[in-house]
Amino acid sequence: MPKLYRDGVALTYEEAGNGAPPLLFAHGFGGDHTHFAPQFDYFRHNHRVVAVDRRGHGQSDKPEQAYTIAGFADDLAWLCQELGLYKPVVVVHSMGAIGLELAARYPELPGALVLLDMPFLPPPEAQSNFQQMLAGLRSPAYREVLRQVADTVIFLPGDNSERKIGLVEGLCATPQHVLVSTWEHFLAHDTAAAAAACQVPTLYIGSVFPANLNRFRELCPQLVIGQTVGTGHFLQLEAPEQVNGMIERFLAAALKPQADNNGGANK
After folding, report:
1. Which residue blocks in 138-222 are alpha helix, DSSP H?
2. I need a surface site. Which of 30, 48, 50, 101 has the fewest CB within 10 A?
3. What is the dihedral of CA 67, 68, 74, 79, to 10 degrees?
4. Angle, in degrees to the nearest 10, between helices 176-188 and 124-137
5. Distances (CA, A) of 79 to 64, 73, 85, 196, 242
6. pLDDT tens track of the chain, all 267 residues?
């Protein structure tokens, strides 16, 4: 995979296709760029597509450092500049806080956001479970904690069993220091403030994670909400036809006015 070095840290990515707007895919907690394989292959026919391994994940470097939401957003913004991605549609699985932080910190950068099954301001019981998960991630038994979370929260009984095994093993292969720091900073992130600062068209597609969508829409009035049917947390892999269709429809509706105002620049 190609790589670019930011302050000595290798960030790897995959790219293909041509056409505007470009799509930038950023995976979730403990994931890698392959988690968007169906979307990468589908949208490459009409768009330039880039799928990244975030710092600490996949084939990117995994230094001992703090893994903050702002830091992940800064990496994505830097990659956009280095790769010449103009007004990309930033698609983020699970850790949608990264996409919202990107839009808040760099308001002129993204053309739109797509957030897949993001736990937005979840209820107190879910927040308590997330805090317990952090304690488990800090323990020597962190891999067992991850497997338990996968069995009870992430997957549904109807999800592809072979795919589940591969996804869980990939999650457990992520270095513990990356998992702990990422989850710690995810829980501390002010996602509501980032949502309130987001001004770009935003699509939320939900599945199994809890989210306060009424509050989300209050903070981000341009929010469009979709929901997949019969999928666990990895909705983009379990039902790509549903996810791809919603993204495609959203882009046609949300970005056409921008293209018209720019004299067709995004067509």
Report:
1. 142-149, 161-173, 176-188, 191-197, 213-219
2. 48
3. 30
4. 150
5. 21, 10, 8, 24, 28
6. 999 999 999 999 999 999 999 999 999 999 999 999 999 999 999 999 999 999 999 999 999 999 999 999 999 999 999 999 999 999 999 999 999 999 999 999 999 999 999 999 999 999 999 999 999 999 999 999 999 999 999 999 999 999 999 999 999 999 999 999 999 999 999 999 999 999 999 999 999 999 999 999 999 999 999 999 999 999 999 999 999 999 999 999 988 755 555 544 443
Is the separation of the CB atoms in 14 and 1 below 8 Å? yes
Through-space distance between the first and last CA atoms of the chain, rounded to whole angstroms: 29
Nearest alpha-carbon partner for 6 in 79, 72, 66, 56: 79
Helix 161-173 to helix 142-149 angle (10° resolution) is 150
3-state secondary structure of 116: strand
How does DSSP classify residue 67?
A: -
Sorted by where each begins, the domain ranges of the chain are 3-121+189-261
Candidates 3.40.50.1820, 3.40.630.30, 2.60.40.1120, 3.30.420.40; CATH matching 3-121+189-261 = 3.40.50.1820
Instruction: Tell me the one-letter amino acid at 81.
Output: Q
**Among candidate residues 110, 27, 130, 121, the one with its CA nearest the CA of residue 72:** 27
